[in-house]
Specification:
Blueprint: H1 5-11, H2 14-17, E1 22-23, H3 31-41, E2 45-46
Parallel strand pairs: 1-2
Length: 47
């Protein structure tokens, strides 16, 4: 018997949905540049 989408989502752990990726940048980067960089690299964190 196959599961419904709702059942699968309830069983799915947050780390399976989010795949955090780290991007490093210089401290002189602006917020706008950081957002563009994160979007381009599909990153969740900027250090």
């Amino acid at each position: 018997m196959s599961k419904t989408v709702e059942e699968i989502l309830k069983e799915t752990k947050i780390h399976q949905i989010l795949r955090p990726k780290l991007v490093m940048a210089l401290s002189t980067i602006t917020v706008g540049e950081a957002l563009v960089l994160m979007q381009a690299d599909k990153a969740g964190y900027l250090v």
